Amino acid sequence: PATLGVLGGGQLGRMFVHAAQRLGYFTAVLEPDAQSPAGLVSHHHIQTDYDDPTGLAQLAELCQAITTEFENVPAQALQTLANTRPVAPGAAVVGIAQDRIEEKAHFVACADASGVTCAPYAVIQTPAQLQAVLDERTDLLPGILKTARLGYDGKGQVRVRTAEDLAAAWVELGGVACVLEKMLPLTAECSVLVGRGWDGQVVSFAPQRNVHVEGILAVTHAYEGNMPPALATRARDAAVAIAQQLGYVGVLCVEFFVVADGSAHGGLVVNEMAPRPHNSGHYTLDACDASQFDLQVHAMAGLPLPQPRQHSPAIMLNLLGEVWFDASGQRREPDWSAVLRLPGTHLHLYGKLDARAGRKMGHLTITGPDVAGVKAVARQAADLLGLPGLDVG
Ligand code: ATP
Ligand code: MG
Ligand code: MG
Questions:
Q1: Which ligand is located closest to the Cα atom of residue 318?
Q2: Which of 55, 76, 173, 254 is paired with 344 by a 20 to 30 Å CA distance?
Q3: Keyword Ligase on this protein (predicted)?
Q4: Interface ipTM
Q5: Domains of the chain and any CATH numbers
Q6: Distance of CA 373 from the midpoint of ligand 2 (Å)
Q7: Ligand 1: nearest atom to the Cα of 156
Q8: Phi, psi of 31 (to 5 degrees)
């Protein structure tokens, strides 16, 4: 059988491997960690660094097509693989998504096509640029200073209120390339998953509403009425336009802010994009007839992309390492039996052995025949597990 390859061994790779195997594909994972979630379940595990030329050659040799599952994969490695094999998404688009400066420039460039723009921002790469912002762009305060590269889950970000805060924050972040973004009054956040094939065929999921706690996704609400329909349509159209403008192949997630009505942004602002399936799309595994990982497999393998249909309302609760510790800091296994006794609960654990605060260990999706029932069960599950961020009213 044909083999599909993944650069990276995290949980996104693991769920991709599961989806590929269901269609009869063999899989190969290149990942240095011996105990990685994806490496553990793949037919082949090439245990080496992401930029090791020998490992990359081995991966290309084994595979019909190759994808990546984490944001900070060296874009050069994708380029090397692309010399001999189809790689999706490509090195160029991954490079754009890895750099907030390039990413925002792309959003600005396709604002006409997408109908959305990003939060007001300024680039700070040099002391002179910092000084210019301090002198001329106080309209961006209060704001968030974000490193251009390598940030995720709110890491590499400092909230700044004053010019003094900003100058100190840039030093604190190491004086590396950053963007200063104006702090917007968010009323909600959402994201949209788009799948695009080599032939340009595009499919998408309806927007999911996301709740973040301390910069990390905590809860995803995926059901009709999770946000105003006009905004949902705009977000979906914008994400498709952004994917098309990139010539993207594979699954792309675009994150949006919803801001208070009457603002200059017309209610919707694009935040960032992830060139891969996304944590906020995990509900698609249990609530849709094709998941985000199925789309990624189809896109890579050159198969037609199914337009997914959501058959059940769903809420996803992220399970971070905290859940594995009691109030006194003792490690203990959560009471899964109590959770799984609740109707419509689907538990996904990623096979990670060491639980640490903030580490993504698994997720729980709740599905059911109606939204009210799903919310009620999600409330009970969140209480049992001590989870934050569930604002189900
Ligand atoms: P991810 O893990 O999603 O890649 P990240 O580290 O790249 O996260 P962002 O998405 O830039 O971080 O920001 C994390 C969260 O911080 C957002 O989801 C939002 O809740 C908040 N946030 C970021 N930028 C702004 C802003 N300009 N105004 C208000 N809130 C913001
Ligand atoms: Mg990000
Ligand atoms: Mg984000």
A1: 1
A2: 254
A3: yes
A4: 0.97
A5: 3-87 (3.40.50.20), 120-182 (3.30.1490.20), 186-385 (3.30.470.20)
A6: 32
A7: 6
A8: -160, 130
